[in-house]
Amino acid sequence: MTPEYRSGESSRRNERGRERNRSGERKFSATAPGERTRRADPARLVAFEVLRAVAADDAYANLVLPTSIRKHRLGRQDAGFATELAYGALRGQGTYDAILSLCVDRPLAQLDPAVLDALRLGVHQLMAMRVPPHAALDQTVGLARAVIGAGPSSLINAVLRKVSRKSFAEWLDMLTEGVEDPVRVSSLRHSHPEWIVRTMRQSLVNHGRSVVEIDDLLAADNAAPVVNLVALPGIGELDEALEAGARAGELVADSALFAAGDVGRLESVRSGRIRVQDAGSQLVARALAAVEVDHPPEDGEEWLDLCAGPGGKSALLAAIAAQRGYRLVANEPAEHRAALVRQALAAVDPAVWSVRVGDGRSIGESYPGGFDRILVDAPCTGLGALRRRPEARWRRQPSDLAELGPLQRALLAEALETVRPGGVVAYVTCSPHPAETTAVVQDSLRGRDGYVLLDAGQVLDGVSKSGSLHAGHESTAQLWPHVHGTDAMFLALIRRAT
């Protein structure tokens, strides 16, 4: 305390010892730090609610976020900020926790989970967003005071100040200094669990690519994906989306990329004539529709989507089938997901499709005549869509592969038995893991005569606008986020010859 301050101290304090304002009654501005940090900024509050729901309730971020945005009535700009903050903090959780562990004086597991989520939001603003450091600290502390309490806000302020003293690059260098294991280095730098890094390295090699691509692949997982749209053939047009700022897709016909805000405001999307669907999903569905069927029935082909929920690929296939005068059965074992399939198919002529609720592993009993084309979009770990499901990388475990494997093989086996001679089965997963892709196909074909593995890469090239995806390897095909800008979709096409 300076002598100048002490000399006038008594004259500026009231009877309670509080300092009086020199110019009469004190005025608080709307942006004064002491006032601002006692309120929760709505956009940051939305992001905090998303992280809390994901951690405490096992919720899915993409389902919680829109509800929270509507509840707090965020405008377009604030909604975009909340989305970037919530998804970014979830994707970066592994790296951010490693940084926080160097700045907190106790194991992170001992922190209140709400405090840890607030810290993650603060770190993401400091490390990866165009937010000034003072604003990131002040607003995160304000959020903590409003929704957690004054006590924890002091800890959050102190920890984030430590974090702010280094750039993200400096923190990454510190975290990886002396670490020789390349898997560990990639895990820290790109915020993926080590087992997933190992999986992706193995997957690249298994599908004919180089392991040196691993950092590009992991970085693509962390990039915010652009919304992909598809106009259902013969039903939808992209005019409204293009007028709203979308641009035509470069990979697939009747597709567009939309980065102009809430796609739900488009009437064509609300009506179901235009659908949100990753370009990789569009490609594999169109590939099945494009393969020539031997000896097609005179009264039109019968198609089957064996694992239809929530119905995106069913809608695209049904629209194509309708153009050709064919029919589609969409099978889904869970009634609530079957309802989503019906909703997805609503824009297509109901005369060409039906929805069956039942176990796909016994569908041959209900349709003894079989099908000409069958899509087996098998339940999988979803490791190929980590960029769209930011919390998935922290929820999945290696044990999931062992649990899903028997189901994947059983579904493919049923499809191979149910498809008519001359017909085609498409086995699809949103995962590049060999245990869910090539191993399932090889095991299912082993000991079966009369089945031919087609060149899936060549078929994908034929349905793509580029005509040269370079996705094929040893008859199967694998798409990649860092190469094709799609989810990592796997495709095998199998014809029943006899």
TrEMBL record:
Keyword terms, alphabetized: Methyltransferase, RNA-binding, S-adenosyl-L-methionine, Transferase
SAM-dependent MTase RsmB/NOP-type domain span: 200-497
InterPro entries according to UniProt: MeTrfase_RsmB-F_NOP2_cat, MeTrfase_RsmB-F_NOP2_dom, NusB-like_sf, NusB_RsmB_TIM44, RCMT, RsmB/NOL1/NOP2-like_CS, SAM-dependent_MTases_sf
Active site, renumbered: C430 (nucleophile)
Segments of this protein annotated with the region Disordered: 1-37
Basic and acidic residues bias locations: 1-28
Pfam family membership, one: NusB
Residues where S-adenosyl-L-methionine binds: C307, A308, G309, P310, G311, G312, K313, E332, D359, D377
CDD domains: AdoMet_MTases
PANTHER family membership: NOP2 YEAST -RELATED NOL1/NOP2/FMU SUN DOMAIN-CONTAINING, RIBOSOMAL RNA SMALL SUBUNIT METHYLTRANSFERASE B-RELATED
Record-stated family: Belongs to the class I-like SAM-binding methyltransferase superfamily. RsmB/NOP family.
Name this polypeptide is given: Transcription antitermination factor NusB
Classification of source organism: Bacteria, Bacillati, Actinomycetota, Actinomycetes, Micrococcales
